[in-house]
Amino acid sequence: MELKDFVKGVIADIVSACEESQSELDARATVNPLNIRNEHDSYREPVPEPTSIDFDVSVSVTTSDADASNGGGKISVASVVSAGVGKGHQHTQSSGDVARVRFSIAVLLPIGDTKAQASVLRHKGS
User: Fold this and answer.
1) Alpha-carbon separation of residue 123 from 30, 113, 116 (angstroms)
2) I want to staple 78 with a disulfide (CB 3.0 to 4.6 A). Which of 29, 37, 58, 72 is the partner?
3) Which residues are bridge partners to 62 per DSSP?
4) Residues forming a β-bridge with 99
5) pLDDT top residue among 64 and 34
6) How far apart are CA 8 and CA 68, in angstroms?
7) Of 94 and 70, which is predicted with more confidence?
8) CA angle 80, 21, 122 (to 5 degrees)
9) pLDDT level of residue 96 (50, 70, 90 thresholds)
10) What is the mean pLDDT of residues 61-86?
């Protein structure tokens, strides 16, 4: 599998999981709620915040005769070391024909049920 297809698939699966979870949970919980606090812990207008999706994969470069004549190749996933949500950084480590690549992609996930969240905020403020 090419790296780009793997990354697209992971992001699409996470977005779909958020949407499906929110639909199944109704108002019992909010998946990916809006952030309502600032650094001083005081109220502010709710705003969406990006989520960092961390990847840690082993990749290999494969070339065909057509790729070699163009000086290119395809980056394929050799194995997944880990993939998760949180803070990360970019790092590459090589070993023979396989390289280990770590990177993060910020994604603005679908916002959860804002009506249910607004109801909770109204009760909290009274």
Assistant:
1) 16, 16, 11
2) 58
3) 74
4) 59, 94
5) 34
6) 26
7) 70
8) 130
9) very low
10) 65
Angle, alpha carbons 124-125-126 (nearest 5°):
95
Q: Which of 33, 38, 51, 40 is nearest to 121 (CA)?
A: 33
Averaged confidence pLDDT in the chain: 74
Band (pLDDT 50/70/90 cuts) for residue 13 is very high
DSSP string, the chain: -BHHHHHHHHHHHHHHHHHHHHHHHTTS--SSPPEEE-TTS-EEEEE---EEEEEEEEEEEE--HHHHHTT--EEEEEEEEEEEES----EEEEETTEEEEEEEEEE-PPP--HHHHHHHHHHHH-
pTM over 0.90: no
Can you tell me the distance from the alpha carbon of 11 to that of 83, in angstroms, rounded to the nearest whole number?
10
pLDDT at 88 over 60: no
Contact present, 117 and 27 (Cβ < 8 Å) = no
Tell me how far CA of residue 46 lies from CA of 49, 113, 116, in angstroms: 10, 13, 13
